[in-house]
Amino acid sequence: MQRLRKEKPVSIGRHRRACTICAHPERFEIEHAFVTWASPAAIAQQYGLADRASVYRHAHALQLFPKRQQNISAALERIIERVADVEVTASAVVAAVQTLAKINASGQWIAPAEQINLHQLFERMTHAELEAYATDAKLPSWFTI
Q: I need a surface site. Which of 29, 38, 100, 142 has the fewest CB within 10 A?
């Protein structure tokens, strides 16, 4: 059984002083590449970094992993875009498209059980909430997607 290692908090000041990515003139591009699911090894090679571990250290210190996880659609889009470059089956492409369609803008999976029943939503809304929705398309604060 694998034991989970408890992560120690990172000193941002110490990290920034020692990090080659923090001092890199293309830092924004490096971080963007990471959160859009580019390979850390490819990022290191493209931007002249020591290795992929430096990318992972930087991403961990600046908490880029949650942003990357919310951007899972970018990874799926890359797979779908490569359909002409690799040998794939039609069912694999359809599965990737269906998967992408089930991820909302926040990168959260919307399972079929979580589909919204608009009739029930409108029944729960008060008259004031219905007015706000009709005039400003504003959903009630209790409703989260």
A: 142
